[in-house]
Design a protein that fits this description.
The protein contains 5 helices and 3 strands; from the N terminus they run H-H-E-H-H-E-E-H. The chain is mostly helical.
């Protein structure tokens, strides 16, 4: 995990440099940047999907995404909690505090608006994925 956190910091620094017009010249760094951009867009979709069947809290969401089959979506608390707050602020999630188990946790559940947006996000993701795969196949890269 420490490596991933350090790597993300490095990517963020390089990303800031890239935004100022500098080139990295490092293929691995470019792949890392691209992966980070893809993950940023996919995490809202992933979190809303996890919460659609019932409420959940931050650590539980991170635990779900840490399962081996979801390893590309693994997230740190420094990403998860701000994203949950953003989704709540945008009306896609609502939260409630609970301390019945001795430790205070904020449980999130998806709103009606969140469900509608998630449905559209899934449709958009499927279309995007399908069209990208068509390009990959046409280029003989599959």
């Amino acid at each position: 995990m420490r490596y991933i956190s350090c790597r993300i910091l490095s990517i963020r620094q390089e990303s800031a440099n890239m935004n100022r017009g500098s080139k990295s010249g490092n293929p691995e760094l470019e792949l890392d940047r691209w992966s980070l951009e893809i993950r940023r867009g996919a995490l809202s979709l992933a979190i809303l999907t996890i919460i659609i069947d019932g409420e959940s809290y931050g650590y539980d969401i991170m635990r779900k995404l840490s399962e081996e089959k979801y390893s590309a979506l693994q997230v740190e608390p420094s990403t998860t909690y701000p994203l949950l707050r953003r989704l709540e602020k945008r009306g896609m999630l609502e939260g409630r505090w609970d301390d019945s188990e001795g430790k205070r946790k904020k449980y999130y559940y998806i709103t009606r608006q969140g469900r509608m947006i998630l449905k559209r996000m899934v449709e958009n993701w499927k279309t995007l994925n399908h069209q990208l795969m068509l390009l990959v196949e046409e280029a003989g890269l599959q």
